[in-house]
Amino acid sequence: MLWFAWNPRVTAEGCDLNRHFVDFSRPLPANPRYDDLAQHFVPPDLSEDTLRRADAVIAEYRRTHGELAFRMARQSAQHTDPGGIFYRGIGPTEARRTLEQIAEDFDVGARDRVIIVDYHSCLGPYGCGELQTEEVSGLDGHERAVRIFGPSATSPILGTSAATSLYGTQDDFWEGALGDRHTYICLEYGTYSPEVLAEGRRKEQWLFVHRPQDGDSELTRAIRNATKNNSYPQRMDWKEMVAWRSHMVHRQALEAFTT
């Protein structure tokens, strides 16, 4: 959640960091389903008529192809549309290079055992800190997480996670660096409904593409405030739930090193 300090979900290069850890020296995968809906995910304007037409096309796609195909089209990331949602990029971003440099500076790759707690927000029930493992670590990675954090750890492989199977998550980096010497967990705090989040992301991306220079208008402030609130609700109950769950997860991680 660190890059949300400046409101946008994306990096300065427009990339979604949670889908960005891929080998850019190899051919990049296509997402033809995304291409079918790209102009409707980020329409040219935010007028009621334009949004209504875009929503109608998306709704028809969901009816025709099913919810799973739609989620894969929308959330699986893409390399072809720099102004679109979940853009993975065509080369390493500064944020990725910074993480890689930190891992090198602290010689993390030489450690016998590493536990990564990667903070995220949006998916799942409001305030609930779901402990998500990633597909790249496989069932062995999920079992390592269960031994440390208990049976509340979820997995997209098992169909127990609020997240879909993704390629290029931060765990791809740790899996490559450490293999079975690491345990990765994504601590995901739910905020609002998928519909609210999707609409906020659409407007945020529209702003990024069509109004990058318009930093201080009333519309810009409204969109950016909504983006921040969608990912970081300004309510004490949500903040207290985050703090309580975080304390428990940190304790479990530290205790794992003593056993």
Question: What would you say this structure looks like, in words?
Answer:
The chain has helices spanning 32-41, 48-65, 67-75, 94-105, 138-149, 170-178, 194-210, 218-231, 236-256; strands at residues 114-126, 129-132, 153-154, 182-190. It has 259 residues and is an alpha/beta fold. It has a domain at 112-191 and 235-256. The protein has a four-stranded mixed beta sheet with strand order 1-4-2-3. β2, α5 and β3 (153-154) form a beta-alpha-beta unit. α1 packs antiparallel against α2 (48-65) and α2 (48-65) packs across α3. The longest helix has 21 residues, at 236-256. The model has no long low-confidence stretch (mean pLDDT 91).
Concise structural overview:
This protein has 259 residues and is of the alpha/beta class. Helix content is 47%, strand content 11%. β2 (129-132), α5 (138-149) and β3 (153-154) form a beta-alpha-beta unit.
